[in-house]
Amino acid sequence: MNAFRTVMPVVQRLLPLLEGNVLTAISNVLTPRPPAPTPAPKIDLAPIENGLTELQTQHRGLRDQVVEQNATLKRVEDQLEFVREATDRNTLEQQELLEDLKLFSRKVKIFAAIGIGMLVIGIVLNLLLFLHIQRVLP
């Protein structure tokens, strides 16, 4: 079998002689046979696979962080909405208090005006009474 294998390439080159292609057969015999292709060297893919595994792990971690940050942002948004509602309520209460204060201020001003008016009337009456008593009592 080994002998047959070694003779086989030579026989393949000489077969065109039987067909009448002498020149082709001679060129086949004279041309060197190309060397057998060497198998491609084995590539170690372990570092790349390790890197991909690490990247996938980091991606999961980042995705978890993004989900957590989204949840945190939602909570902050809810808290801001609560603060905004509380601020709106406080603003309305302050406006009502301001209106009540203005109304009370008007009442105090009216009471003060009446008090000052009565004081002026009392002083004028006391002055008239004093003048009248001075005229009556020499």
What can you see in these coordinates?
With 138 residues, the chain is mainly α. It has a domain at 1-33. It contains three helices and no strands. The longest helix is centred in the middle third of the chain and has 91 residues, at 46-136. The protein is rod-shaped and about 175 Å long. The N and C termini lie far apart (172 Å).
What's the helical proportion of residues? over 70%
The count of helical stretches stands at 3
Reading the helices and strands in chain order gives HHH
Instruction: Round the mean pLDDT to the nearest integer and report it.
Output: 85
Q: What's the total number of strands?
A: 0
What coarse outline follows from CA principal-axis ratios?
Answer: rod-shaped
Rg (C-alpha, Å): 58 Å
Amino- and carboxy-terminal Cα gap = 172 Å
Uncertain regions: pLDDT < 50 for 5+ in a row?
Answer: none
% residues in beta strands: under 5%
The major beta sheet can be summarized as: none
Class from helix and strand fractions: mainly alpha
Provide a compact summary of the structure:
With 138 residues, the chain is mostly helical.
